[in-house]
Amino acid sequence: MKILIVNTLDIHGGAARAANRLHQALLAKNINSKILVQTKSSDDFTVLSPESKVDNIINRLKTRVDALPVLFYKNKSKTLFSPSWAPSHKIIDRINEQNPDVVHLHWINFGMIRIEDLVKIKAPIIWSLHDNWAFTGGCHIKWECNKYKDACGACPSLGSQNINDLSRKIWKRKNKTYSKLTNITIVGLSKWINDCSQESSLLGKKPHINLPNLINTNTYKKIDKNKARELWSLPQNKKLILFGAMNATSDVNKGFTELSAALLKIRREDIEFVVFGSSMPSDPPELGCKVHYIGRLSDDISLVTLYNAVDVMVVPSKQENLSNAIMESLACGTPVVGFDVGGNSDLITHEKNGYLAKPFETLDLANGIQWILDNERYEELCINARNKVMRDFDSKVVVNQYIDLYHKVLKDNT
Length: 414
Description:
By secondary structure, this protein is of the alpha/beta class.
């Protein structure tokens, strides 16, 4: 069986990391798997990418060209919006040249695949949803908007009042294209996004399955906390709170503003705050405690040691699908606090391996952090955290579910 995983990037970003973990798990099961990307950063020979410098330059330009229609909307929000109109024939040619049995799409934006070109893929398609884009008129985070259940238009993300705006035009393009895709299966990585997609006007009639991302628990595991703190030069006599994401302090969805307010409500001398994904800003905010800015991390060893060095991880995102950070932290035996939104409840069992705060209530977020830090059953929380991941998300368990899905798709398309 020959599987081709398709994602814009190979190692940077949550979708890339999730896709790569699936790829590695398939290889470990002796499945013929390759990844096709638009931009390659690794030296992995099983990752295919543009072959010439000219193609690489064109792909970088496509990212900007694809975003041009959005520039007409001066009141657009800061969240990503993708028209996906830039031509993608070379990528489609590369996909079909591989002659895969199954094409497994993940995150395909930044001009990687034009919507209309999906019908040119010859093999059966499986599409893992990492955000809302596949079933909306272009936004990646739908927030509270439910227009994806109808036909979009007057898009809040665009700051538009026009019913026939860019989001409606993209919805029509997707609707026309998706109606021609008879060999596609949708994977909702969380129960929440699976439900959203099934409720959508664009993908609701397509076959769906709820299958999570997976993680190698031989890599992400518990190690000695004191040694981990030594590696990061972090204090041994403090309770450490961790927060991190790509663009951790600047991405409005990641909830740094809400977490800052929660920390100011705590104000304890025995805690310190650790941030990865961002370096220290020129004008760092006052958070009521000492802050350690780690900067960007991408390798597993750094992440494992950091998760193990702290006492609690906080993921205060306003919308989450199936958070890599939560899964990684739990696998390392570190409890997590997050808002009860999206797919967080797939990972966090309230007051068993973490704390689910009432959405966007900073006082409850603060309460959750202190509940974990001061809990007499803290070690039990840590054990529960790892056991949850071992049971539901371990790569050796979940990869077999993906292989079963591939076999089913192949059987249904013969």
